[in-house]
Structure formats: C-alpha cells, structure tokens
Amino acid sequence: NEYFCMKLAKSIGLNVASVELRYFSKYPALLVKRFDRLAEKNEVKRVHIIDACQMLNLSPSYKYEQNFVSNRDVKNMRDGVSFKKLFDASNRCDIPAIAKKELLNWAIFNLLIGNSDAHGKNFSFYVDKQGLKPAPFYDLVSVLAFNVEHSMAMAYGDEFDPDAILAYDLREFAQTIGINYKLVAQILQMQAKNIIQAITEEKVPVDTNSKESKESFDTLKETILKRATSYIEVAKQMGKVSY
C-alpha cells in the first residue's frame, strides 16, 4: 500500500522520498531512502530536519487536529496540528510560496488517495542557514483501502469524514489556508486526472506474490480510482457552490 502510494505520488511529479519494495523469502518490506542523512565520501552527515509538530511548538500528542480523537464528547477540541496552522507557519519558510504549494500538493494527494493518517508528524521541513523548506513527502498510505474507522487527521474546511469532503468544504478549506479556490480546484483536478492515467496505464507496477496480496492491491487501486474520478467532478463544482 505505502509503496504503491509513494510511487504513485512520484509518477505524477510530487516530491517524495525514494522507496523500494524488497522480498525477504515471502515477506515484503518497504525500503525508504533516508532524506535526513547525507553521504559524503566515507562520512554520513545528519541533515537538520523538524516535523510539523516541532515547527508549531506542539507536543507529538497534538499531531492530530482533534487532539483528543474524534469521539462525540471531545470532537470539538481541536488544538492539534491543522491546515490553517501549517499554512500560517509556512510564512516562516525561506520561500513561503513554494512551501504553500508543497503543502497544498500534500493535502490534495492525501485527500485523493484517502490517507486519513496524514498528521503533523508526517510532514517535515529542512532547516538550514536560509531558513525552512519542505522535505520530501513520506508515509503516504491509502488508509481507506483498509476496513477500519476513518477520520481525517486534519479537517478540510470543517469536515473530517473523508467520504463527505465535497465542493463546499474545499471552498472553506481554500479560504482557511488563504489560497484562491480556483487554484485549489485546478490542482485537485490535475492530480486526479494524473492519478487515473498513472493507474490505468500501469505506470506503477507491483509484483504480487499471492492471491491475497493481489486482491488487496486491486482493492487499493479501485479505492483510489473511485476517489480520483469523483473529485474531478467535485473540482468542477467548486465554482458553482454558494459560499
């Protein structure tokens, strides 16, 4: 799942960490190239990097916007990492416009694949003399492909339900993060179309070594294709809703 989603993101031009899928006997393993290390001759240097929680001076326990989870009694307690906090903080990056574009690409791709676990520990920034800049994306997983409870880590507009985020919510999302809704709609539609093309043209081949893994992979592709197709229409509706 993660291998496919990472490679899918790479295939549509997003900045993601390099990954490989290796098998040890019959057991698959995901190898991720570390982007917080730099190999120079015979030396490996650490690269200064912080995650979104650190950037916002929040405890890791606040990595979800609904920091006390989403059950009825505490769902309105939303002191954790949110898109508004992230986009506001991106003004501290060395080139804010690039940081905002990367954040928007990340937010939209996670929406399209159904990654409900895209929280504040799953987005990071490089730190150097020039300032902060977004690191490659990582931990991209279609959680919706699994039969578990789903609630997005951060609200799009005011909506956490991944199946209920529609045109109005994305208009509100655009206003919240301070980006013109037309640009949000354009990137949403472009990513959705590129995802559909990448999957239908099998630009991300995956070798499955069992019937069970093939069925899981087929479910994963169907889940993402269905969402991408529906969000092409949602993008078109964004200019028509009253907001």
Description:
There is one protein chain. The chain has 7 helices and 7 strands, in the order H-E-E-E-E-E-H-H-H-E-E-H-H-H. Helix 6 (181-200) runs antiparallel to helix 7 (211-237). The protein has one domain: Phosphatidylinositol 3-kinase Catalytic Subunit, Chain A, Domain 5. The protein starts with a helix and ends in a 6-residue tail after the last helix. The chain is globular, with a radius of gyration of 18 Å. The longest helix has 27 residues, at 211-237. The chain has a 3-stranded antiparallel sheet with strand order 5-6-7. It has 243 residues and is an alpha+beta fold. Helix content is 40%, strand content 13%. The chain has helices at residues 2-11, 52-55, 83-89, 96-113, 167-177, 181-200, 211-237, and strands at residues 19-24, 27-32, 37-40, 43-46, 49-51, 124-128, 131-134.
A few lines on this structure:
It is built from 7 helices and 7 strands; from the N terminus they run αβββββαααββααα. The protein has 243 residues and is an alpha+beta fold.
What labels describe this entry?
single chain, 243 residues, alpha+beta, Phosphatidylinositol 3-kinase Catalytic Subunit, Chain A, Domain 5, three-stranded antiparallel sheet, two-stranded antiparallel ribbon, 7 helices, globular
